[in-house]
Amino acid sequence: MKALAEHDLPWIGEAVDIVARAEGLPWRVAEGELERVLAPANALAAVTSSLRKLLGGRAVHARVAREVRGMVLGAPALSASARSARLETCAQRLGLPPRELESLLWSDLPRERAIELPAGRPNELEVAAHANVQLVQRALGRAHGVQARLWGDAGVILRAALARGLIATATREPDHVALAIVGPLALCHRTGVYGRALAQLAPLLAACDRFELAIDAGDYTTSIASPMLLPVAPTDRAGVYLARKLARDLGRLERTLDLELAPEPLAAGRALVCPDLRVSEAYVELVGFWTAEYLAAKLTRYHRAGARVVLVVDEARGAEQLPAGALGYTRRIEAAAVLAAIRSPTCRSPDG
After folding, report:
1. 90 with 72: CB under 8 angstroms?
2. For 61, which of 107, 130, 209, 312 could close a Cys bridge (C-beta 3.0–4.6 Å)?
3. Cα–Cα distance between 219 and 14 in angstroms, integer?
4. Rounded to an integer, what distance in angstroms lies between the CA atom of residue 14 and that of residue 138?
5. How far apart are CA 208 and CA 179, in angstroms?
């Protein structure tokens, strides 16, 4: 994958100008001109998609279009006069000109949505940065496996990967953290859901001082490395959502519990384990996608780290038998069951 850089800014600026000139017109008008921009097809597609997201308007137009269609469509208007009368009646009710009303009928479709510039003309660097995120996401979506080397604060990526249920293993090297992630194409089920979860790591790469990705796509390997134009890493609220909810529920069960959200990763030799919660002397890790082998290896690493752990596993994201030491759940994590598992003699401890 070739990332967009400063030498791409001239043609990106041309694309932005085309979109800006088409303000108020449907996106299909701009798309016809964008096809003539001299740029790699995948890069141009990423820039166009980034412009759509940056300019927004999708939610607003979807709501308006549904309302307009609900009022205008129905029994066929068999004459031009009947059609005009119906449009005029609906326009009066909505307080809009009849001509504008007709243009809103299908404005929730991507190519029919009007181009809007709520904050003025987008900056080429901003567009390039967001387009790079999309290029990385597309590469991740076609991966059999991903090998990442992260310098600086690797915890952001590691915790985000685990919070999204990705099958990932972290190893501490002398000057960086190595992270191996199973790709969506290596799974036999729910590959689309897994691929979207993996793609959510791309915007967070900017939180690292430096990164290198080797994406195994089966027939070839794509290498991605910093420095790269990327937007500022967003706050990853999804990274602690379920753990925070479980901690709140545990605290309601017993106010005296010693709870710590997102404790420091634990070293198991060179490997790292990343629990979501510390509950007194034990740890809890929430697991999404899994295999029995993956869970067994994770339990072994906690054993090496000298930590008691309960793995709380989403049963819908695996198709095998849960090993001893893992607590399954379907839709909702029951805090009482987690607390009972922590206090059970079968809770995995350093002694086995």
Report:
1. yes
2. 107
3. 35
4. 24
5. 13
